[in-house]
Amino acid sequence: MAKTTKEDDGEEVEVVTFESLFDAYSNFGPNSAEGEVGILLSQVDLWMKQAKLIDGNVTLTDTGMVFNKFKKRRITLQEYEQFLLDLCERKKLNIEDIKGKLFNAGMPTLAPKIA
Question: Which H, E and C letters describe the chain, residue by residue?
Fold first, then answer.
């Protein structure tokens, strides 16, 4: 999932990218199916919850309404980026802040991180 690179000392380290996080969330949980491409609404919601983006301003209803504009069960990475832009426009949020929080949420866990 994450890219592996070699450091100067020859040690391999994992480099996490937004794309690798997208892949991790799209393949996480009982709803993931071998060979299907894209992320489900339930996986989007998990990622948003883990990033602590579901709050009084952004709700699961908001994510559902924006996601359903695509009229598909799963959306691709490119469509997910459009989903984020649409959500940010709808809720008057900064896209870079949202992507930063999603990135900082890290790989999916069974339960959202609680601070």
Answer: CCEEEECCCCCEEEECCHHHHHHHHHCCCCCCCCCCCCEEHHHHHHHHHHCCCCCCCCCHHHHHHHHHHHCCCEECHHHHHHHHHHHHHHHCCCHHHHHHHHHHCCCCCCCCCCC
Domain contains 111: no
pTM higher than 0.70: yes
Tokens of 66: 């924006």
**Residue 73 binned pLDDT confidence (cut-offs 50, 70, 90):** very high
The average pLDDT across 1-6 equals: 50
Domain encompassing residue 80: 3-104
CA 33: distance to chain centroid?
A: 17
Domain count, the chain: 1
DSSP string, 23-34: HHHHT-STT--T
The pLDDT value recorded for residue 1 is 45
